[in-house]
């Protein structure tokens, strides 16, 4: 049995832990051998491979990034993409493929499995935690810890100065990082993409916070958007989906708060810091177990599936579930957290 | 409505986050007022209280320990203990009580609720994560992160020297911290209380590891015990349960490994470092939500219950569930992790 | 003997450690008592004081911020400012004053000492480390560690993607944080206020780095400025000193790199995260010793002086030395570090 | 010009940063090439080499350990040791040698330089910071930060429980780690090898601390020893120098405190955790600059010297200075810190 492995999409702490789990169990317990594909779907598309065995996975558990490289190459958009992948898999005598990635990567995997009968098992990956098929995805806990630590440090300044502190965190379509780090960090306002925010309401919270205690900390997801009438973000342009340009909502908001409340405001933009570096213990645990269960699914011939977390168990769900529905923050949960606003 | 709050048993990062969640929601949304009881059950037993309001919970979210103090006082073992508690609650006009604690603290709470009709809601707390009624308890993730970071650091020495490194972590009756930190840290041997270990097997893993790569790291829960025949731990004495003295298993094991393999071995004993300091983001999230849901249970008059985590939801279970059964590491899970041994 | 203590200027980890050192030694060894002045020079100006004794300094060692509060109030710019301070000190029977602060705060202190004979001892404070009279100031090491950790995390993304990563760090007039964190983090370009940068040279380094290895990391001090011809920063405006507006150089540079090299670039702006939170071990050591030596200077009647670090010794220098000359990055040192560029 | 590089003695964060500094500057600026010797003096003794060029040093800056391996092999104690080294250096056409290590490694280097005219430059390394020729050595700041963070976490338990907490840190002959981390962590007792401690005095501090505040934290260097009459450490044995066995002083002390004060005491033994893992920003800065200056000394033909830190400058001192005198904690400094005891 020869198994191919690839990682697609954006950076996410834990990718290497998944790979290590797959290879260690696959070689030691099942006697499989492995082919690493380079840079996501570009690997099987171009037959670009890398040695993947036990020495190759030694020491990678605590490392961010992916030893296989990644890309956003989509074979469905390439001429004869699927055919070339099938030919390369066949030429390399690859019996099964484990694809680790997000919505796009797993969408291709699902199609390969459903339409072309390729033996694929998926491992879900999204730092934003916005996949409805699984309780959590790896990388998310790391990102939340990093953002929380940053917020912790801002409290000091908030305590001794009169400045509003705005922190922009990741989350284009879902506010999970914002709501988790904002709650854990004791933020006074949390703004998420799921609910357009009212700048006047934000300013009211800011003002009431100043009265009750010290300067407020505002956590805003990069995809959070103001309500109609407040739509002119920094450069006033719309992106290709007709949304206002998301980049820079933190700085935009800081300026609006300054303008409307007369208080100074400062911005921190954590950016890619949130998705790099060593994974948290939880993410290593989850990623490793995803790897162990993915190779078990291969052994069981349970293709077209994806591993997922349910409570403390790793289960299998249809690959199509990966892309079915974005998991967004439930309004009830947002309301629950709202008790700490202002 | 006046609500009493107490924290009992050992230290655990997140206790203050629970208290803050209770008070913020209770005062702001329900208009309740609060009485803090000092030092666990000693507080209501002796009528020893402390002011508990919004200024009192300001800034405590990231702090370890508990602003209410804690103790292991058991009113069931005190003369007229229950009667004195009832009298003090009545005198202080406390309508409901939220007890945050482990098996012992919640055992008293269950009895107060079941036998004496006291209006009690429980919040489970055990750093060892060994409570079957909930997926996770707060404090555990923090402890695992601390132990994992220590193991990470030991890899450096293991790489460049020929020493076996033994790390003793918490876990008297359950190996959750050992198995999580050992897996996340890439340990080569993990020993847990649930399965007596065979020193010769440990030495075989140690020896094979030296051949394959660099020096091995052995994670051992403080409650792990060798098999019969290896029973003479450091001081040879039995504790009150007839168990060998658990303290010092790490150092004992290091010496046995040295004696049997001829390799040098060094020990790290993390001790209370694992249960102190600021909680991880996950623990703050979980603890805060436990607090919010506990006061909601009070509002609903749902007494005799305890909050618990199921997947990503906070649910209520009978208080008696808290003490029903120790959640130990499933042999299947231990076997799953065993792929990384040696 | 009654001693007043105040902290002025911006936030800086270690301020509380200084205060604790002063009070512990002053009360225990010399039997002095203390008056805390609130919010820098506003305190003695308005006679606004706070209790300052051993219980008041308990537990503050690891805390960021300052228990005394801070401000930028300058009594030299207030009507009768100096007279009001002298009157208040006299009314409160304050025999000596310890002023902890940067150039502005210590400038006032120097004038009070020199011109008005007030008994003042200074403790230097600047997170930017730009004071020539001392080897290091506290807070700086903490800021460098935070920035370095952020850069560490960005390497992961740089490794697996083709994006230029720009990190803007503190440093308006001196590049110490940029050069220390950039070197420690393994940055490929470091830009400091002391030397105007050439965007084409930056782009050349970026391009050569892509060829040799993976994506480059560019560390830029907030006060770094491009050479003539590249002067139009984001909003094109000049600040009150006739400098171009410094805020936003990171984002501006990222856009220029994108425009000129065709590579995607992303920005991280750490902002106040760098000056908040718990101090590093070194900063606690330095700050505590500054406190101990400041009170010793008071005991010796050695007024008009300031404590300073020379090698591993704490020495005293004239207060006027604090404001004499900005300590900037030596061109030779910048060149030394330049071996890692590109 | 071909330059050999070796690392000897115990683990120390920053070794890789030194190597990288040497190679980057030596190849890029001077056009040298390099030979890595494996496992300290064993490398040149046996002609065991490893490729050392720019790709070999890529990415090693943040890594603990040493890519060259280390050992305690002493060629002076090997038959024809010096002759074999000279022959191997000659055979490999090595013109100069950079030796990175502690007292033993640099002692050999000094002899090679002085007696045999070998072209050697030294880089000092001791995690204990006990070298009189330099203000600081790399690795020390990292160890102090790790120990301080552990002490920080213990405060939580100390606050909420009545247990004495004993932390054993590194330091066989000098108490630098103990005194720095103890001061930075706010310990209540600090015991160092330079001054035999009186257990009754320790117990007096413990008891007075309980009265004034919460439970005490005792930091003890592994090499600290009780005064005569208290000499029977755990196993009562003497080591080869006639000293009592140092290992286990923490646990021994905890038991003595329990016996004499009646208070419970718990021990944390950090062990090798202190010397592993990623270096702090300061240690990366210092180690990198040591590397840059060592290769500069080679270029200048300034052999028989060692780089050292004086204030913020890197200077050169005779290699013999490395082994001249142990830098121990000055009694005056210990007294200065003593204000925080009890």
UniProtKB/TrEMBL annotation, chains A, B, C, D:
Function, in words: Catalyzes the phosphorylation of D-fructose 6-phosphate, the first committing step of glycolysis. Uses inorganic phosphate (PPi) as phosphoryl donor instead of ATP like common ATP-dependent phosphofructokinases (ATP-PFKs), which renders the reaction reversible, and can thus function both in glycolysis and gluconeogenesis. Consistently, PPi-PFK can replace the enzymes of both the forward (ATP-PFK) and reverse (fructose-bisphosphatase (FBPase)) reactions.
GO biological process: canonical glycolysis; fructose 1,6-bisphosphate metabolic process; fructose 6-phosphate metabolic process
This protein's name: Pyrophosphate--fructose 6-phosphate 1-phosphotransferase
Pathway membership, UniProt: Carbohydrate degradation; glycolysis; D-glyceraldehyde 3-phosphate and glycerone phosphate from D-glucose: step 3/4
Annotated site location: Important for catalytic activity and substrate specificity: 104
Residues binding substrate, per UniProt: 126-128, 163, 170-172, 222, 266, 272-275
One of the record's GO cellular component terms: 6-phosphofructokinase complex
Gene that encodes the chain: pfp
Similarity comment text for this entry: Belongs to the phosphofructokinase type A (PFKA) family. Mixed-substrate PFK group III subfamily.
Domain of life: Bacteria
PANTHER family: ATP-DEPENDENT 6-PHOSPHOFRUCTOKINASE 3, PHOSPHOFRUCTOKINASE
Keyword Transmembrane helix assigned: no
Requisite cofactors: Mg(2+)
GO terms for MF: 6-phosphofructokinase activity; AMP binding; ATP binding; diphosphate-fructose-6-phosphate 1-phosphotransferase activity; fructose-6-phosphate binding; identical protein binding; metal ion binding; monosaccharide binding
Subunit annotation: Homodimer or homotetramer.
List of residues binding Mg(2+): 103
Annotated Gene3D superfamilies: 3.40.50.450, Phosphofructokinase domain (3.40.50.460)
Keyword Magnesium: yes
Enzyme Commission code: 2.7.1.90
């Amino acid at each position: 049995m020869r198994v191919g492995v690839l990682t697609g999409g954006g950076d996410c702490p834990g990718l290497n832990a998944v790979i290590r789990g797959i290879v260690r169990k696959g070689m030691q317990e099942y006697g499989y051998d492995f082919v690493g594909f380079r840079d996501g779907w570009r690997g099987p598309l171009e037959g670009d491979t890398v040695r993947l065995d036990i020495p190759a996975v030694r020491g990678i558990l605590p490392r961010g990034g992916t030893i296989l490289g990644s890309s956003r190459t989509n074979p469905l958009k390439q001429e004869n993409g699927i055919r070339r992948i099938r030919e390369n898999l066949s030429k390399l005598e690859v019996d099964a493929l484990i694809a680790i990635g997000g919505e796009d990567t797993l969408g291709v995997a699902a199609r390969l499995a459903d339409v072309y009968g390729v033996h694929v098992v998926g491992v879900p990956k999204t730092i934003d935690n916005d996949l409805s098929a699984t309780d959590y995805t790896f990388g998310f806990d790391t990102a939340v810890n990093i953002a929380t630590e940053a917020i912790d440090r801002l409290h000091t300044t908030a305590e001794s100065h009169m400045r509003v502190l705005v922190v922009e965190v990741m989350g284009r379509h879902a506010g999970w990082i914002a709501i988790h780090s904002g709650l854990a960090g004791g933020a006074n306002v949390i703004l998420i993409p799921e609910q357009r925010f009212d700048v006047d309401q934000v300013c009211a919270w800011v003002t009431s916070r100043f009265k009750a205690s010290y300067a407020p900390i505002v956590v805003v997801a990069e995809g959070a958007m103001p309500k109609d009438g407040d739509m002119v973000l920094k450069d006033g342009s719309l992106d290709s989906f007709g949304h206002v340009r998301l980049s820079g909502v933190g700085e935009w908001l800081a300026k609006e708060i300054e303008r409307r409340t007369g208080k100074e405001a400062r911005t921190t933009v954590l950016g890619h810091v949130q998705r790099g570096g060593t994974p948290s213990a939880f993410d290593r645990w989850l990623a490793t177990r995803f790897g162990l269960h993915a190779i078990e699914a291969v052994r069981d011939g349970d293709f077209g599936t994806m591993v997922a977390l349910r409570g403390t168990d790793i289960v299998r769900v249809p690959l199509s579930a990966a892309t079915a529905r974005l998991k967004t923050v439930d309004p009830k949960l947002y309301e629950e957290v709202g008790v700490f606003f202002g």
